[in-house]
Amino acid sequence: MNNSSDARSLAAIDLGSNSFHMIVGRLKNGQLQLIDRLREPVRLAAGLTDGHRLKPEVAEGALDCLKRFGQRISGLHPDSVRAVGTNTLRLAQTKDCFLDQAQDALGHSIEVISGIEEARLVHLGVAHSLAEPGGRRLVVDIGGGSTELIIGEGFEAIHLESLYMGCVNMTQRFFDGGTISKTAMKKAVLAARLELQASKQSFRRLGWSMAAGSSGTIRAVRDSVMDKGWSDNGITSESLKRLRSALVDFGHADRIELSAVNEDRKPVFAGGVAILSAVFHALEIERMRHSSGALREGLLYDLLGRIQHQDIRESTIQSLAQRYDIDLEQAQSVEETALALARQLIDSWQLNQQDTERWLHWAALLHEIGLVIAHSQYHKHGAYLVEHSDLPGFSLGDQRFLSVLVRCHRRKFRKSSMEALPGGMRENAIQLCTLLRLSVLLHRNRSRSAGPAMQASASKHSIRLDFPNGWLKHRPLTLADLDLEKKYLKSAGLKLEYS
Known about the structure:
Number of domains: 3
Radius of gyration: 26 Å
Helix content: 40-55%
Distance between the termini: 44 Å
CATH architecture of the largest domain: 2-Layer Sandwich
Largest sheet: 6 strands, mixed
CATH superfamily of the largest domain: Exopolyphosphatase. Domain 2
Number of helices: 19
């Protein structure tokens, strides 16, 4: 993006398990300035049933919040807004229709991200908020349903972990009803230490020169211990111990008298303190400072990177291709043909050119990734690797979409694969899969020469390829492949014609 004097507004929305946050920034002359913040405590995690469905009253409150957020950003272009759901939506998304309702209320799409992607974005937000981002750091973020731990340096995350414990679910387990006893606090800290057991050695081994906490829980702890004079700079292990004793003395969440802990945080504060205490113990932290940057700031800067053509997703795909020794020349040949077809069908299939080119580029690059496991059924192996790997920058929905493109690039066109996608994405997935399939077919001989100068046309339910005169006559294998492909595409509701 050039350094225009024209200002552009960007918004980032974090649908957390405890609170929903939104920040709005203004991009002008290449610089990002925060201009608005909104936060509402929705307690999404507390409204999740054992069957991973949201209680109606909690869902209703969350949707009302999103309507208010939606009004604030109603004038923004979809490319200027990113909204993500974290732990509770990860649990609820397959069991509930809440996500569809949430997107309607907000007026923008919502991505559900993995815990590792959440950790990456948290670190990015922290790194951008520190006065001196240099040096290796430990970052801790305690959310409502999960806790993220990151070792990072500069703006890069080196090691990431996401643990299924947050201030809401920890409170539900050990401080249900608001009672805070010495026994309950000890049990809560012990449970959190057990969650940390598997990862603590790797973090200690990497080491850090500074520890930072980025959540509202950690800010409230920092302010509380400093207000009481238990620490003169950040949070220390001793000040945290005194805070735990104070909470036990209060005896109940309603009786917490700490000016830094507001009314909506009191019900879940003891759970957050227990987790932070366990983190301090497991990682042998001496002192922790608070960072004003968190997930939503990281999300905003990640969005800015996409706008300025510094998309982490491209780096992720290139890294994956290198790790699995992809045949880059074959991938490039397939991509070029797929893009040539797509550009002829932009209008007839009503394709978004930028999105189409991006997805075909990534899919072409990864379509043979499954060969690292076995040639037999390699499209299935590849789909599994794409869907279940940690892919920085990608939401879980994005990974599933890319996985479907890889899965359906050859052999039978499985409708069951498409059914894993939201309804609005299925038609586009079929179209892109078709382009990828035809390109792979035309480059079966793995020749480095350019593909044929063919003409492509299409209607909603058909596609036609016109090859140069006599071209197919001298390529009986390609003709046989097209005859078979005609049957495959018919099962997807597309008629293939060629001459």
